[in-house]
Amino acid sequence: MERVTLDFPAAAVIHRHPLTVRVTDMNYSWHLGHDALVSLLHEARVHAFATLGIPEWDMQSYPSIVVDLAVQYQHEARWPDALVIETAVPEPGGKALTIYQRIRNPEADKVVATARVNQLLLDLSTGRPVDVPEKVRQALAQARGI
């Protein structure tokens, strides 16, 4: 079986977001379900960009769309684990933002999952992707401490 392996770019971290596993996040095996994990990633990603003043739905007048998602599941999480989701965004190339997220359980000293999302920014008038605006690039660079 081929497995997804992702390398989390720790030097590109822009935000850390604490979240707690909820009872409603549990699956049949009583651990964090894959569908809930994706929702937690989304929640943390929205907070990360909002902290920079560039919400996902309005990145310099362009909304973003997820074009793909890869998740490497590494350890279980259960209710009521307190997790931290780190969001890292390397320097954007062209029209895409590649966003990495790592879900950690600091108390257990384990990585629950690592994920990568590719997002495009769209010009709604044409329906076409646009280059990542300079202000978005600058906000990300500043958050990375560059």
UniProtKB/TrEMBL annotation:
Q: Which domain of life is it from?
A: Bacteria
Q: Which UniProt keywords apply?
A: Hydrolase
GO MF terms, alphabetically ordered: fatty acyl-CoA hydrolase activity
Q: Write down the InterPro entries for this protein, in alphabetical order.
A: 4-hydroxybenzoyl-CoA_TE, HotDog_dom_sf
| Family label | Belongs to the 4-hydroxybenzoyl-CoA thioesterase family.
Please give the name of this protein.
Thioesterase
